Write the structure tokens for this entry.
Amino acid sequence: MSRKRVVVTGLGTSNPLGGDAPSTWEAMLAGKSGVRHLTQDWAEEMPVKIAGTAAVDPTEVLDRVKARRLDRTAQLAVVAAQEAWADTGFADVDDIDSVLDRDRLGVAVASGIGGVTTLLSNYDALRDKGPRRVSPLAVPMLMPNAPTAQISLMYKARGAANTPVSACASGNEGIALALDQIRLGRADVVLAGGTEAAIHPLPIAAFANMMALSKNTGDPTTVSRPWDTARDGFVLGEGAGILVLEELEHAKARGAKIYAELLGAGITADAHDIAQPDPEGRGGTRAIRRALEESEISAADVAHINAHATSTPQGDIAEGLMIHATLGSHATDVVVTSTKSMTGHLLGGAGALESIATVLALHHRVAPPTINLDNQDPAVDLDIATKPRDLPLGQIAGLNNSFGFGGANVAVAFGSWS
Amino acid sequence: MASTEEIRADLADIVNEVTGIDADDVQLDKSFTDDLDVDSLSMVEVVVAAEEKFDVKIPDDEVKNLKTVGDAVSYIAMALSTSRYMPGCRPGPRRAGSPCLGGGGGPPAPPATDEVRKR
């Protein structure tokens, strides 16, 4: 029996560039930045005063009562899921149960940190006003699987409701888990992706103290500068991305619009250090290699890579080594980009948003640019798009890499669809 | 002393804030669970917000007896007879000169009528 094929039939996002996928894509092609000054009072004493805040506040989009029962992590995921669901066309079907078995509808939405702002605001209430003022909703709001559970409730998805947690690789791991669910025959459709909302003084101080964040105090839009010689750390971002993944025959049977095919994934661990990447990128190399093998494609098929490249001195170089190790002589033929130059680093949301960017790049045959690349680091021998770059016609593949603290590496491969 | 209607109206605002239910639907004969669809966690939120608003204590053991809006209003009125609530007072620390013992943001002191003196 041939293995099941999985396609992308819906996209949704809310992130620093836009409140939906079309506006995000438009902003990416225009090379816009979603990094801004933080205006909250607490930002005054922070070592870093900028972040990629969501372009559209989710509380402006969601019903008031619904929003107050959700941590911001879930708010952003729900907004993204609503767009992705509408994009699939399921909602337009008169008798949806005739085309969708909810027992075989899954959710796999990741988060790196979970509902950290709910946790901390309830701790503030406990400390300042006593235990009676801790919200009875605190646990269902802050638990890491809250976004997944809320989406499962919204669409009566009764298949597996997964929440992978692998720091900044989480979003890609959600997509990889969803692929498994469909390939193993356990689900027909999975809402997959990731979300994060950790723009709060505690995570900012913590990331800054571990020397991960840029301390650049110049124009915020120029601070995230992957592969540039002046890069000095990442910019924290927030947001969510959801992709609706569907078994190919299921999608064909209902005449669904197909953006791209999800070909394969590779998941590995560095087993090197809790925070530092393997300087030779061996774990990431194995993840990319496995993704190519599982996808049954060769290096020559890869036309585009949406890199993890967060704008850290060490990580950006290591990823260049991984791309060379896996693609060999084709490494410099591939159009590489880091959309984090525009969005900042969405942590658990990063892999999902960047998978959406990869899918749209294959769909529209154009790679979005890497902004702020004024002087490419000579240690990085890659063809990096600094303007939107046309991708070749014909059957092509795109890779999206994500690497996380703890040594987590997840690469996913998408194929163009025509 | 706050009237039943004043307590009901303040409670209705709380229920609206927590659940989105129209405040006009929060009438004395309505059951929280059967008529207003207030789930158990939302009920805890309503109770805690009511404690703050009215400056009373509603022990967890009492909450299960508060089946209807009228039950809650009666309980709050009873608790208030030993308390310091005034309609219109907002929660927060007491401000000097404010009649709102449980809330500093309330309106200026009303004339010292007999009703106020009784409290």
